[in-house]
Write a structure and sequence with these properties.
By secondary structure, the protein is an alpha/beta fold. The protein has a domain at 45-142: Barwin-like endoglucanases, CATH 2.40.40. Helix content is 18%, strand content 27%. A hairpin with a 5-residue loop joins β3 and β4 (95-102). The longest helix has 15 residues, at 11-25. The radius of gyration is 29 Å and the shape is elongated. The protein starts with 10 loop residues before the first helix and ends in a 5-residue tail after the last strand.
């Protein structure tokens, strides 16, 4: 009849017990978990800016806020709603700070390089009403909450 080895006389079990006991006594702290990876956003975007027509005034935006052409608001395709950006008219140096409340631009304007759609009030401050579409620089001042 075979004799059974006591539990701690098996070499591998003893090695595991010693390793666990010694690591518990070293004061080893767990490695902190890295923060979740957030999509990197360029702090400055370059492209064209257009403004939304009167047709959209009073309609509900993608964020649920009614679009008011008299407020300093804008539409951007990817920035979170509530983000605050400074848009500068590259032609004349004028700038305006707006809040992102909608998605856009889409269609022909987007294909031609438009990166932001502005309200009429913002467009007036940039003096772009006559031009309709201008080269612009968009600086991200504060990101809003994720959609």
């Amino acid at each position: 009849m075979a004799t059974r080895m006591p539990f701690l006389t098996r070499p591998w079990v003893a090695a595991v017990v010693v390793a666990l006991a010694s690591s518990a006594c070293t004061g080893h702290r767990p490695v902190p978990v890295p923060a979740p990876v957030v999509e990197a956003v360029a702090p400055v975007l370059e492209g064209d800016a257009t403004y939304l027509s009167h047709f959209f005034h009073g309609r509900t935006s993608a964020s649920g806020v009614p679009f008011d052409e008299r407020k300093l608001v804008a539409a951007h395709r990817t920035l979170p709603f509530g983000s605050i950006v400074r848009v500068t008219n590259v032609k004349n140096g004028r700038s305006v700070t707006v809040r992102i409340i909608d998605r856009g631009p889409y269609g022909k304007n987007y294909r031609e390089g438009t990166i932001i759609d502005l309200s009429r009030a913002a467009a007036q401050r940039l003096r772009m009403i006559r031009d309709g579409q201008i080269p612009a620089r968009v600086e991200i001042l504060r990101l809003g909450e994720a959609d």
